[in-house]
Write a structure and sequence with these properties.
This protein has helices spanning about 20-35, 60-70, 90-100, 115-120, 130-145, 180-190, 205-220, 255-270, 285-300; strands spanning about 1-5, 40, 45-50, 55, 75-80, 80, 105-110, 150, 155-160, 175-180, 195-200, 230-235, 275-280. By secondary structure, the chain is of the alpha/beta class. Strand 6 (about 80), helix 3 (about 90-100) and strand 7 (about 105-110) form a beta-alpha-beta unit.
Length: about 300
C-alpha cells in the first residue's frame, strides 16, 4: 500500500497561521526522506468559519509545481483539483506540464468542489456542480490520455483542442476522482483510474460506498478490480499540539506500533493508497508518523 502525507497549506493550528513556502518545502522534503510514497496538497482558495470570518490558504497548483521541482522520488497530487477553478482544457494542459516537471510522478486528482464560500468569493458558478464536472471530465480525460478532444456542451466547449507537447507518459498522468454521491460514483466508474472516498477512521467506514462503487462499475461495464481505492486518514498527536476541533472526534493516534497496525488494517482491506493528515503538520509530527511508517514497512518485510 502506498502511504502518503498531506502537506497543509492553510492555517495550521500548531503554527497559528498558514505556513510559508520555505516551511512547506522543508516539510515535503522531510516527508520524502522519511519514506512517504506520495505527497498531497489541497486545492482551495478561501475558507470561512461559522461566524463568516475568512481563513486563508495558498493556491495548491502553484505550490505543487514548486514541490515537483524540489522533490525527487515521492509521487505528488492534489486532493483534489476543483474543475470549477480552471477551464477544463487549460487544466489538462497544466496537468501534462506538471507531469513533465515531476518526471512522471503526478496524479491528477479531480473533483466538483463543495466549499460555497470560495465559489462566491472568486465569482465562480456554484449551480449544477456535478453537471459541470461531468462536462469537464469529457474534455480533460481525452486530452490527458490521448492529447485531443472536440466537445461542446451546456457549460463548456472546446471545438478542437490538442495538448502539445505531450508529457513523459504516453497515456498521461493517472486520474483520481473524489466524490461519494451516486452520480459522482458513476463518473468515477467511467473515467477514473482511482477513487478517493474522503476521510475515514477505519477501513470499514467505506464498505457501503465501496459496494455502491462496485454497482456503478457494473452499470458502465467495468471490472471494479481495475479501479484503485484510496482514502484519507487523520493521525493526531495531542501531546505535541491539541487537535483542531474539526479533527477532534475521528482520528488515529497512539504509539508508533498502534498507528502501524492501523496502516496494516487498511492494507489488508485492499486500499491502494492511504493519504495521512498528520496533526500537528510539523516536522515533529511527521517524524513520529514516519516511525509508524517504518514499523509498518518492516512488518511487510520491505
Amino acid at each position: 500500500m502506498n502511504v502518503g502525507l498531506e502537506v497543509l497549506l492553510g492555517e495550521n493550528g500548531a503554527l497559528g497561521r498558514p505556513p510559508r513556502y520555505a516551511e512547506i518545502r522543508d516539510l515535503a522534503l522531510r516527508s520524502e526522506a522519511a519514506g512517504f510514497d506520495s505527497l498531497w496538497l489541497y486545492d482551495h482558495l478561501l475558507y470561512r468559519d461559522a461566524r463568516g470570518a475568512p481563513h486563508g490558504i495558498w493556491e495548491g497548483w502553484t505550490m505543487l509545481s514548486a514541490l515537483a521541482e524540489a522533490t525527487t522520488r515521492a509521487e505528488i497530487g492534489l486532493l483534489v483539483a476543483c474543475t470549477a477553478f480552471r477551464e477544463p482544457a487549460l487544466l489538462a494542459k497544466m496537468a501534462a506540464t506538471l507531469d513533465e516537471v515531476s518526471g512522471g510522478r503526478f496524479t491528477l486528482g479531480l473533483g466538483a468542489g463543495w466549499n460555497q464560500a470560495e465559489f462566491a468569493a472568486f465569482g465562480l458558478a456554484f449551480d449544477h456542480r456535478v453537471g459541470r464536472f461531468e462536462e469537464a471530465l469529457q474534455i480533460i480525460a481525452p486530452l490527458v490520455r490521448r492529447g485531443q478532444v472536440a466537445f461542446e456542451g451546456a457549460y463548456h466547449a472546446t471545438p478542437g483542442c490538442e495538448i502539445l507537447p505531450r508529457g513523459p507518459r504516453p497515456a498521461g498522468p493517472p486520474i483520481l476522482i473524489g466524490g461519494v454521491g451516486p452520480r459522482m460514483l458513476r463518473l468515477v466508474a467511467r473515467y477514473a483510474d482511482s477513487w478517493n472516498g474522503g476521510y475515514v477512521a477505519t477501513p470499514h467506514d467505506l464498505d457501503g460506498l465501496r459496494a455502491a462503487l462496485a454497482r456503478a462499475c457494473a452499470e458502465v461495464g467495468r471490472d471494479p478490480a481495475t479501479l484503485a481505492v484510496t482514502a484519507e486518514l487523520k493521525v493526531a498527536y495531542p501531546d505535541l499540539a491539541p487537535a483542531p476541533p474539526l479533527f477532534a472526534d475521528r482520528y488515529a493516534t497512539g504509539s508508533a506500533e498502534d498507528v502501524a497496525a492501523t496502516f496494516h488494517a487498511f492494507d489488508e482491506a485492499g486500499f491502494a493508497t492511504l493519504m495521512c493528515t498528520c496533526l500537528p503538520n510539523t516536522p515533529q509530527g511527521v517524524e513520529r508518523l514516519g516511525a509508524a511508517l517504518e514499523i509498518y514497512r518492516r512488518g511487510r518485510g520491505e
